[in-house]
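Hello forum,

I keep getting stuck at the same step: I have a sequence, I want structure tokens, and every attempt I make locally crashes halfway through. Rather than fight my setup again tonight, could one of you with a working pipeline run this one for me? It's a single chain of 173 residues.
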Amino acid sequence: MHSLGLCVNKVAFNPLITFVQIHVYNKQKNLSFPLRLVKKIADAVIKLENQSCDELSIYFVTPLVISQLHQQYFNDPSTTDCISFPMDTNNQGEEPEKYRILGEIFVCPQTAFEYAKKHSGDPYEECTLYIVHGLLHLMGYEDTERKKKLIMRKAEKKHMVNLKKLNLLLLPK
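Reply #2:
Ran it on my machine without issues. Output:
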């Protein structure tokens, strides 16, 4: 399972006009899952949010890497579930030719595994939730204030229900 990455080039997410490149990099060994499924999950969330972008990167990393990123960018050395780095703002109303990079998401599957074990849950479903959470942050959702957090949790739930209907939750390889 230890793959150094997968790039799915020019896979349509809006069959009329837009193509998206979703780069998926697996830099950990804790959870094994098909990397192509990650692309399908991201694609479904982007579609349901009526967003458009040209490129997105998702990294699956170790607890050490996520804690280093957390320290570097948030001054917090603790391990966390996911970190998102938005790049280009939403291009609605701008020239359609403008290339838009949605951003980067770093997910720690070990955190999902530990959380699921503690709460008698499924680590693959938890890791899917982290992908959704990271994508929502890239699309402008925030969870720093109570009201915004409730809105984000509602969106997460909507996407998880949709992904379950589409049979697009992460699964073991």
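The mean pLDDT is 86. If your local run keeps crashing, start a new thread with the error log.
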